Amino acid sequence: MAYESDLEKTEQIADEILGTGTSESPPRVQELLNISQSEKPRRRAGVIPLFTISDAKERPEEREHFVRYGVHVCGPGRCDRPGSPPPVLVAARVCVTHGVAPIPVPAKQKGPRIKEWQKLRLTEQQLADSFAPDSNIGILNGEPSGGLVDVDLDAPQARSLADRFLPRTGVEFGRASSRRAHRLYQTKGGFPTTDQFRDTDGTMLVELRSTGSQTIIPPSTHPTGEAITFDATGEPADVDGAELRTATARLAATALLARHWSKKTGSRHNIALAVAGYFVLGGLDEETVTAMIVGAAREAGDEEADARGVDVATTAQKVRNGENVIGGTTLKTLLSDGDKVVAKLGAWLSLRGPAPGGEGGGEDNPPPKPSPVPDVSTLPVAVLPKTLRRFALEAAFAIGCPVDYVLGFMLALAGAAIGTSVVVEIKPGWDEPALLWRVVIGPSGDGKTPALRAVCVPLYDMQETAKFEFDVEWKLYEEARRKAKTPQQREEAEALRPKLVRYFLDDTTVEAVALELRDNPKGIPLVNDELSAWVRGMGRYHQNGGGADRSFWMKSWATHPWSVTRAGRRDEPPLLRAKPFVPVLGGIQPDLLSELADDRGREDGFLARVLPIFPPSLPVPGANDLTVSDDAATAWRRCVERLRGLPVEIKGGKLTPKAIAFTDGGQQEFNAFLDAMAAEVNAPDFPINLRAPWMKLRSYCARLALVIQAMRWACDEADFDAVDEVSVRAAVALVGAFKTHIRRIYRQLPATPDDKRADRVVAWMRSHGGSATVRDLANHCVAGLRGQGATKEAEALLEELRRRGIVERQERPRGDPLYVLSRAQS
Fold it and tell me: What helix, strand, coil percent values describe the chain, rounded to 5?
């Protein structure tokens, strides 16, 4: 049984004892107090808290019965009843009974005076002569007490962070100025060694006390005069010794970081990136690194602590992709006592070392080389406002689907709720809306549909309410029409004709979308759990359409103006939209991927506009009773409703979205992202077929930053007058993850003959000075160009590369035009 030391439990036990009407020890007393001989081997030290109860009422008869059965309630350090054993002696007896080795310590002292106290093993008969009534009591940790060890949390940062890293245990104690400073564990699988973790100035942060050490326990008195009392009075948790040592080291490392975390806002971001690089390259997993960095930042008072998780996600993704990151070398320059701090972190956490001149961890082993085909990264939930992360995780766990599905749909629906209300202006002439095309790719039964439905519940509820209101108004309208007798009455009745407010579409035809946009200037999302009809419409060129559907959707992605002539009504004016806003949310199966490329086998940029989610499938879940909590569902609903309430501005008959800019910090982060993207695409070995989606990711980064800023505003975590650096970093982290999903898609699409020939042409040009003429390619039979048609084929190839932005054409006074590789390919 668990032990409780509060007054109510004490009185309950006392009443049961007193109610027996006998002076003998009844079996029920033995059960309640858990001190029977049969219980001795079950737990050690678990009973000690009952001997230090200081708040119990002191009725003489109550004390009599409690003392009779070995429980002392007078309070630590005093005893006013003749013949009552001192509390310290009672505690010592219980220790021996439960296999824990007690040792006497002078009053108000922390250490024993006995020589070779580590070898002391007192028997029950020796206790009375060993413990003075006012002495302190210690226990020998580790082997002498059967593997009982103590984690001593000396630094306030360690005590504050302990619950994040240490296993829960039922035995915790401390004093008034440092509550819960000691936590006892019953180790198995080998005892950990005693270890001390100190700051660079020698300040003790955390101690792992095992064999060869001792700990003062209640009822004792600290040298300051404070009583040492219990904070948790259960049983010491069973833990693996090695795992406890790892958890303690991570706690100490986090406390060390918190004590050296910069007070300057600008440098905190760089510290987070450097620590993330150092730890990830050193071999720690992303979840652990996030917990440590966010914990240290919070403890240090960093107002952007939660956003540091995004820094970790960005860094981890770069490492997986084989990109350069900052790490230990840079970290040394950012922290006070940087060299010593980095050395301690590497030693405590057993980090792998860097390659020569690298940025990694310890001293011995280089970081692993990234796989040429990077893994697909999970979208980082840390990008969401704190109040919405719970919804994403609970929904994913309840459904048994990848959290990517839920998170991706949440971002797209939030963007749909924003609609045409707001755009982010990157610079004059370049602004981006909150429009996302979110397509989840996965096999049937993978959880796509349940994830979409869970996220869209607020939207469905809005639609249901609108339909109910419409039905009521329609009945009133019909009643007015029925009663109308004169032309004026019929005109008045017609004025009552209601319009159904549509919150989403599931019809993918161009005409259906155009009609709804006519009545929805804010825009309307296409929501369909199976987007197969939409995808197939994009992939076919009809005789009487010429790819009209595909052209329509490509224009709508950029919110460029378009017009639609309704079928059979060519005598009527076309449907015109200046800023069509149609987000897309839905799923397709992997075998439909090839249909996103047109029938001529040439990728025309449509697939690049899709922001895909294509994670590996999870095992089929078994039965569970997990659901989304009311609090999480309410938080998500409020976010959607508040975003949906953003107004649409129409000035002079023209739809005019509110344009917001980046903050200075946000602009710096976005510019750095653009520079990094340019460097990546400019690399000599960058695949040509990824150029189009990478260019669209520049727009998507701005769009995602706008959506995240709006979500943070809707959750009361930020303003919405500008897009700040926190939102941009979150967007950059998302883009890094989306790159891996895009790569997975393009690996599964068959390479077209044009792509293969283009690769060969570009490779030849790189090896011949970065330029070529049509005649050069034909004469050297590049990419299989032979025969009479070689010159025309070469010109067609170079012009196609120019259309894709891979080469530039330079006219010359004499001779053929020269085609030169663009900066992105040279």
Answer: 50, 15, 40
